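User: Here's a structure from my thesis project, written as structure tokens. My advisor, Dr. K., wants to see whether a designed sequence matches the one we expressed. Can you design one independently, without my sequence as a hint?
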């Protein structure tokens, strides 16, 4: 049962990370132009737009003089961490699927079902959960 517990925990960690990431993007997008205040507390808002890579809200500012300081025309893109999180959320399940395929391929070795070709523990999960061929 240990192997299935590891898979379940990995799936739950991924789902929690995915939910947090989507919530972060949704909150940033829902703020609209109010989320593009620069400098903070100045009541000077830029134009918010969605950017697909890195995912998130991009803020575009026009040149203006505020009560605090002049603001040069510039664009603030989402953090590179947003792109890293997106890649991580794709790589995490891909690694687990690859591990599952590797275990399944190991089960279906050529030469018959469950034959041991000199590989001790070949019919065992890598984490020692027990035999893969349950019908033996």
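Assistant: Designed independently from the structure alone:
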């Amino acid at each position: 049962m240990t192997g299935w517990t590891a898979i379940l925990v990995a799936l739950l960690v991924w789902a929690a990370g995915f939910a947090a990431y989507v919530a972060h993007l949704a909150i940033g997008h829902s703020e609209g132009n109010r989320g593009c205040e620069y400098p903070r507390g100045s009541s000077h808002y830029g134009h918010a737009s969605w950017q697909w890579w890195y995912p998130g809200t991009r803020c575009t500012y026009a040149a203006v003089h505020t009560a605090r300081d002049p603001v040069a025309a510039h664009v603030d893109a989402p953090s590179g961490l947003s792109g890293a999180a997106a890649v991580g959320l794709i790589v995490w399940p891909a690694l687990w699927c690859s591990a599952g395929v590797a275990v399944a391929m190991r089960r279906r070795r050529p030469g018959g079902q469950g034959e041991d070709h000199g590989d001790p523990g070949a019919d065992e999960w890598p984490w020692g959960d027990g035999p893969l061929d349950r019908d033996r």
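When you compare it with your expressed construct, this may help: The mean pLDDT is 81.
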